[in-house]
Amino acid sequence: MVEPIITFENLTKKYDGVLAVDHLSLTVERGEVFGLLGPNGAGKSTTILMMLGLTEPTSGQVKVCGFNSTREPKKVKERVGYLPDSVGFYEDRTGLENLVLTAMLNGVPRGKATERATRLLKEVGLEEAMNKKTGKYSRGMKQRLGLADVLIKEPDVIVLDEPTLGIDPQGVQDLLQLIEKLSKEQGITVLLSSHHLHQVQQICDRVGLFVDGKLLAKGTLDELSQELFSKEGITTIVKVSEVSDELITMIKNHPSVFEVEKVDKQNLHVKSETDVTGGLVHLIMDSGKSLLELSIKEYGLDEIYHQYFQGGGNHEAPIPRTT
Ligand SMILES: Nc1ncnc2c1ncn2[C@@H]1O[C@H](COP(=O)(O)OP(=O)(O)OP(=O)(O)O)[C@@H](O)[C@H]1O
User: Fold this and answer.
1) pLDDT score, position 310
2) Ligand 1 neighbour 44 (Cβ under 6 A)
């Protein structure tokens, strides 16, 4: 069996009575893109700091590539690239010079460092700006350079803390696609901490929802929505030429249907215990109306998050900003 690349075991951190991370147990598989999601103060940064060996757990442990982050922090740092939410570079040096310096500080000889830095700068789309001083880089360019900077030591894992902060929408899309590509093509494991649900949803294989230091739920979007919404049944969105009382009665009589909501004169939301799309097609045809649209409602991460913190998780955590 392949060992998980990151293992958190009952990881706990207390600061002067504040339980920043509360008995976190979680495994991340090699090559996964895992999203750490949670409102401010949920414990995401503290979790990352313990994983990098930069702060000691109060109890429990975290292992990366089989190395204990507290006892063997150097070995962990050799394998993990960390991109904080704001990266600092020597502003009077070029992107290429900055990268070569990082590579050499990580023990890569100059020739190889220049070769690797040039290749990475191309990969992150900074080919034309590589000889420009980083003081003249935009925020998006600095984040791209930051990504190249964490990749230069060829890590197994990269940890990205709010990587898209302050970047324009196109820059965000480009950066997310780049992260996804790197993970898929090079098998790099990515741990992404973010408030931005839509961005996380776009590239993460699995997510963990954190609040008050606790991991409330983890899984793929499908698993989380199944867990939260299965008790609500399946919602089918129906659009017909005209909603009539007769049609509503016919649908209500379907044995699996337990609720029919008329949204407007053409739209209905049908809640049922099982998938009733086939049955609905027949009922609508029998009623003499035309079927214009029929789809099962899918839940996105924002609905899952909202539901978890508003009701499903019975927590009163604030809803984080989602823009
Ligand atoms: N050095 C510290 N000393 C005391 N308390 C701290 C320290 N660092 C974090 N905390 C507390 O630990 C809790 C978790 O903070 P943490 O920064 O890990 O959350 P976060 O999820 O990363 O939040 P954000 O999204 O705002 O960065 C908070 O209550 C915070 O106030």
Assistant:
1) 60
2) yes
Q: List, for residues 207-225, the tens digit of each pLDDT value.
A: 998 888 999 889 988 788 7
Residue 301 lies in a domain: no
Both 133 and 271 in one domain: the answer is no
188 CA to centre of ligand 1 in angstroms: 27
Phi, psi for 177 (deg, rounded to 5): -65, -35
Q: What is the pTM of this model?
A: 0.78
Rounded to an integer, what distance in angstroms lies between the CA atom of residue 121 and that of residue 115? 10
> Is 22 in the same domain as 60?
yes
Strand 189-194: give its sheet, edge to edge.
80-83, 157-161, 189-194, 33-37, 206-211, 214-219
Domain count, the chain: 2
Domain residues for the domain of 54 are: 6-219
CA of 21 to the centre of ligand 1 (A): 9
